[in-house]
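Hi V.,

You were right to ask for the full record rather than a summary. Here it is.
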Amino acid sequence: MTLRKGEKMTISIQEHMAIDVCPGPIKPIKQISDYFPRFPRGLPAAVGRSGTLRSAVSQPSVSPAEAPREEDEDVDQLFGAYGTTPAEQPAKCQAPEEVVDPEGYESDDCTTLGTLDFSLLYDQENNALHCTINKAKLPKLDYKKGLKPMDHNGLADPYVKLHLLPGASKANKLRTKTLRNTLNPTWNETLTYYGITDEDMIRKTLRISVCDEDKFRHNEFIGETRIPLKKLKPNQTKNFNICLEKQLPIDKTEDKSLEERGRILISLKYSSQKQALLVGIIRCAHLAAMDANGYSDPYVKTYLKPDEDKKSKHKTAVKKKTLNPEFNEEFCYEIKHGDLAKKTLEVTVWDYDIGKSNDFIGGVVLGINAKGERLKHWFDCLKNKDKKIERWHTLTNELPGAVLSD
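Predicted structure:
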């Protein structure tokens, strides 16, 4: 290359970056990425999961022993003209908290499936678990708020389904309403499990699934989360905002819950004024499904035994197609208070069928010869006159001996 008289030699940027003009040992060639700011926390997941780019971004480009040189100033000024001011140059003065931390990325499930906002409350006095489903949304990395699009129009028809584990009965499943064509569903809907005991709170887990309803195909699974109920404190609302996960398998041992026939809420009161025992059948929960449609048509019968005159039978109305019926009916048995110690109350739940025998769902026996909560409930009734006492009881699949058929 020939130079005219008075003309200075110029070096291109490429030559400047490829040649180290300082004498001494050979130093690493400067990378062009050294002159650009690093990616901030929260770059797209596809970029963050790329091993090459992540390593290039997360590793320091200048070793601590390498000090800035005067020869680099003209290059810094040149690149500053393209949008990087000296204060923004991270190659030499990058703050540690701005460096991308591989552990700081959200999980793939979180970025793909979205998040769910909900709250749980265990009402210990009324043995009820209240689940308030608030809203759902996509994570920030998708730059759109809402659920993962499931339909061809880019939207979804989301609903939330609850399932108590272990518990394979359809009665354990509750669901919200479906919101149409939205990626930002807000339900603000409370679903309640009745008959939940302190024992359930220790051993059960609540599975919460978000699904997309489809009229012409099977509903599509979006994501789920599971909350062990032992994390909840009685009578205290706990709020959650959790990333949805991929569908997890259900342990086969949970099928043992099929043996459970359901629960019934009974009230007992001895009225001094009426000289009678008042038996209230309030509601049932998680009844076993007896019909092909996955439901039952339940009703309840009560007997006060021994019943020599066979006049103690009472029956509630039939509730169609439900596994969580609410009856709120009360029956009166005229009897002296002193005679109750010799009596036994038999409560049975049946599935009504037209044209064939009704199916036995489950029963419970209260009396002096009972055990556990059944005995305690009967004893508390005898001890506290004119006081209504309510208790939940687990139904057994053993038909009381005196009740041979419906």
